[in-house]
Design a protein that fits this description.
Strand order of the largest sheet: 3-4-2-1-5-6-7-8
Strand content: 5-15%
Distance between the termini: 17 Å
Largest sheet: 8 strands, mixed
Helix content: 40-55%
Number of strands: 14
Number of helices: 17
Shape: globular
């Protein structure tokens, strides 16, 4: 069985070969690849991605049972590039895949493959759906309010304020993806509904994510070892991630628990120390900083810097609560990781999150706009160790079932077989 993956990132092994720093995102794809190759020796796997090489050469390299195809185009371009079609034809001729598995529809690389080679034997894994995200991209902040905080960076780059329009353009490409491919892999009621809305004839397959290796070890969250009254956020730099709603909730939380501290993964996007910082300072950062100052929260937010998977696991264990306060998500891996570690979780009732969290069992849910409700749920967990332990235990049970490596590999293999059989008919 010859399987070609098309991904939006380069895997660590080929990054090492190219003398590049491996990405901190997308580790779940490498985990699934490892699980498939361990269980099914008959699989020949190729992984294709862009590497922006100046020499314009298609690179082919086999490392540890995976054949890598690196296409010489710039990564992360959202505009369709028809020149890729010829290169994708060359990849298809060289590898001759039985199944083509496209991971994500956010970028048009895989669409160029479909246009060049057809989609009868292709399947698309839905990660997020940018077109559907567009209506939530400003995190419920009125555009006229956000524009009052516009910075030099956004006047020059036009990033946040025009993000709904940019995402709608990407959404049109996503619609094309789903009209070319006959098969889709999803995992929530939300992505199933959107796939059906775009193409009701497309066959929908259910398969959950396999997460990064460190989250499967036996070292779980321990209420006696965590740092009390601490909250962890995995992302914050965009309105869609909702840190502004946490800020609005904080005065109520601090009224009850004055020592509460928020830890945020990633670099401090609110920093304005150097000239470079000031030039990169975004409109959203300006808005967030104004809220922090308004509520006198300058000492309540700690940015951890970029964390690798081991450091992320440790941060989950150290925290009293993990919150996913996004305005939209499909199935955030950060929430799955937090549940697998066992830290009590709170999440906004948006998108596919209700498919991951049973309210008051494996986590607590609230309406995104309701910062009062969010604050109340935080205080509930802080005040009730029995509730925290219940959410921890039930979160682990739900996540271990959902993110089971062996089962997810078996399901993926079954999907591949069904596509091959349908293609033969």
């Amino acid at each position: 069985m010859r399987i070609l993956w098309i991904t939006n990132i380069l895997f660590p092994d080929i990054c090492k070969e190219l003398h590049r720093t491996p990405p901190v995102t997308g580790g779940w794809m490498k985990s699934l690849a490892n699980a498939l190759l361990e269980q099914y020796p008959q699989i020949e796997l190729a992984v294709a991605a862009l590497y922006g090489a100046q020499n314009k050469q298609l690179l082919e390299k086999k490392i540890n049972r995976i054949t890598y195809y690196c296409l010489p185009y710039n990564e992360y371009h959202t505009q369709y590039n028809a020149a890729m079609e010829m290169t994708w034809k060359e990849v298809a001729n060289r590898f001759n895949p039985d199944v083509v598995h496209i991971h994500g529809t956010e970028f048009p690389y895989g669409l160029a493959y479909l246009k060049a080679n057809g989609g009868d034997n292709a399947v698309i894994s839905i990660q997020g759906l940018v077109g559907a995200y567009a209506r939530y991209s400003l995190g419920n902040i009125p555009k006229n309010i956000l524009s009052q905080y516009r910075t030099f960076h956004d006047r020059f780059k036009k990033t946040i304020l025009n993000s709904p329009e940019k995402m709608m353009v990407q959404g049109k490409l996503e619609n094309e993806y789903l009209t070319y491919a006959h098969h889709v892999i999803g995992r929530t009621e939300w992505d199933k509904a959107h796939a059906w809305a775009i193409n009701p004839k497309c066959q929908y397959h259910v398969c959950n994510e396999t997460l990064r290796t460190p989250f499967y070890n036996n070292e779980k969250w321990d209420i006696s070892k965590c740092k009390r009254h601490t909250i962890f956020l995995s992302q914050a730099q965009k309105p869609i991630k909702g840190i502004h709603k946490i800020i609005e909730a904080m005065p109520l939380i601090l009224r009850e628990y004055p020592d509460t501290t928020i830890y945020v993964a990633g670099t401090n996007f609110l920093k304005r120390e150097s000239i470079k910082d000031k030039l990169r300072f975004s409109t959203y950062a300006n808005y967030v900083l104004s809220l922090i100052r308004k509520h006198h929260l300058e000492n309540k937010f700690i940015f951890t810097g970029l964390l690798n998977e081991f450091q992320m696991a440790e941060q989950y264990r150290n925290s009293n609560i993990f919150i996913c306060p996004s305005s939209i998500e499909n199935s955030p891996n950060s929430l799955g990781e937090a549940q697998l570690i066992g830290v009590p979780c709170i999440a906004s009732y948006v998108g596919g999150i209700p498919s991951m969290v049973t309210n008051e069992v494996s986590g607590l849910l609230y309406q995104f706009e309701e910062h009062e409700m969010l604050a109340n749920l935080v205080c509930k967990i802080f005040s009730d160790d029995n509730l925290a332990l219940k959410l921890s235990q039930q979160g682990i049970i739900a996540a271990e079932k959902r993110h089971n490596k062996e089962i997810n590999a078996q399901t993926t293999f079954t999907i591949y077989n069904s596509i091959i059989n349908n293609h033969k008919e």
